[in-house]
């Protein structure tokens, strides 16, 4: 397959390297110091699942790549619309653009820019980041990637992508029956983890050790699940207990990307996370007071960092 990785950061860089190692034609789209390092020294992945270094083309110009079978779309949610406007040179009639981003709105935003037929939903479960220009560090998580056509069909292109990802070393590939449900399922977890670590400025271990904080963590999950249910997404009540049990296994020093962005003066994905919950809740006439409180605490920081 010919693939482009639009946003070769922690998620995109990891997947791009694994696909290149499996023999596929991979092109990276990046910018700044990271792009310069990719062009001169290739991409190095330092991973708990095994290290690799790949020398693959990198550019900031989609036109230099041309049409692809698949585009892995891995930019921050606040960049979705602007980046989507640059996708045209990578598309032909059957190109799949797989969103592997935080939030539940990106697929709709992509569809509005490039047409729904191109868009494939995706969810990434991996703890990885750019540790330095040209280097992606995968420090934990299952490296599990869930994806599927928005209408649930088993198309030829999704079957081909599934075959490619399943064959990659260091990748747990899952073809979903209902990718919209999978998007909301992850949303339940990330809104709690991101919201609480950012609002308290503390790691998950200290949040777990505080009964009131751990209760708030749970309530954030319950509110997101309530919104999903009101929107017709089939998420059982047990999803909250399942995620809480999973969160008990997190390294006590774990934070979130939202906390990292807040504390490093970077633009935050607050609107794609808690802002999105509030907007969907209002449309569905669901009360989300805990989410509103976390959003209120973090909004001035998001404004400052913007």
From TrEMBL:
Function description: Catalyzes the NAD(P)H-dependent reduction of ketopantoate into pantoic acid. Catalyzes the NADPH-dependent reduction of ketopantoate into pantoic acid.
GO BP: any one term: coenzyme A biosynthetic process
Name recorded for this polypeptide: 2-dehydropantoate 2-reductase
Pathway where it operates: Cofactor biosynthesis; coenzyme A biosynthesis
Family according to the record: Belongs to the ketopantoate reductase family.
Catalytic activity: (R)-pantoate + NAD(+) = 2-dehydropantoate + NADH + H(+); (R)-pantoate + NADP(+) = 2-dehydropantoate + NADPH + H(+)
Record-level Gene Ontology MF annotations: 2-dehydropantoate 2-reductase activity
Coiled-coil parts of chain: none
Ketopantoate reductase C-terminal domain mapped to chain residues: 178-299
Species in which this protein is naturally found: Natrarchaeobaculum aegyptiacum
GO annotation, cellular component aspect: cytoplasm
Keywords associated with the record: Coenzyme A biosynthesis, NADP, Oxidoreductase
